[in-house]
Design a protein that fits this description.
This protein is mainly alpha-helical. The protein has 2 domains: 6-147, Orthogonal Bundle (Isoleucyl-tRNA Synthetase, Domain 1), CATH 1.10.730; 155-206, no CATH class. It is 56% helix and 8% strand. The protein contains 10 helices and 4 strands, in the order βααβααααααααββ. It has helices at 24-27, 33-41, 53-72, 77-82, 88-95, 100-113, 119-135, 143-147, 155-174, 178-190, and strands spanning 6-7, 49-50, 193-198, 201-206. A two-stranded parallel ribbon has the order 1-2. Strands 3-4 form a two-stranded antiparallel ribbon. β3 (193-198) and β4 form a beta hairpin. α9 (155-174) packs antiparallel against α10 (178-190). The longest helix is centred in the first third of the chain and has 20 residues, at 53-72. It is flat and about 60 Å long. It starts with 5 loop residues before the first strand and ends with a strand.
């Protein structure tokens, strides 16, 4: 699948002769590969594609939401097996000349189901979200790995340092040294690391 051509933020056709083309190798240094894939899938392959960095940021936020649903309500093995079929609407969209924008709309509808149905329907939606995502190369990471930047350049290099700071913050909170705990939180925030405290413990993700 290839787009007819890709245009840049100024609406100009990207080409070697124009000197304004981008390559995936460079983009994955800056953005998660799945976010780039989602942006490319958002336009039909027969149509010109308008690439913007804002679109990649928006795609990352969409994937954050999907991965957040999967992380906060994990499937049991039995649920995953019982509801593993790809939803018909999603398949129909792909059969319609690989209509990926419509397929992504079906994916969004599955995610919406989480907040509007009972637990049984939510389990089905989670499983179908995973099954549909697999067909187009999305949502295949462990949610915790996604939020910690797996696949991004340099992500593994500083994960240990981030975990160490979070442990020090936990120790500071336990000692009621809230000033130090806040200082560590601010230090992490300056690095683009967001902390989420809950009854189950502290989780972190990259902004």
């Amino acid at each position: 699948m290839t787009h007819g051509f890709i245009v840049d933020e100024e609406g100009k056709k990207m080409s070697k002769s124009e000197g304004n083309f981008l390559v995936v190798h460079d983009l994955i240094e800056e953005y998660p590969p799945e976010a780039l894939r989602l942006v490319l899938l958002s336009a039909h392959y027969r149509q010109p594609f308008d690439f913007t960095r804002e679109a990649v940021v928006a795609a990352k936020k969409t994937l954050d939401r999907y991965y957040g649903l999967l992380r906060d309500a994990p499937l049991t093995a039995e649920e995953k097996e019982a509801h593993a079929d790809v939803p018909p609407g999603f398949l129909d969209a792909l059969k319609d000349d690989l209509n990926t924008p419509k397929a992504l709309a079906e994916l969004a509808q599955l995610a919406k189901t989480f907040s509007t149905t009972d637990d049984g329907a939510k389990a089905q939606a989670r499983a179908q979200l995973l099954a549909a995502g697999e067909m187009i190369g999305l949502l295949q990471q462990d949610p915790e790995a996604w939020f910690k930047g797996a696949g991004q350049a340099g992500a593994n290099d500083d994960a240990a340092a981030i975990e160490e700071l979070i442990e020090k913050r936990a120790e500071a909170k336990k000692a009621k040294d809230f000033k130090e705990a806040d200082r560590i939180r601010d230090e992490l925030a300056a690095q683009g690391i967001l902390i989420e405290d809950s009854a189950q413990g502290t989780k972190w993700k990259r902004a």
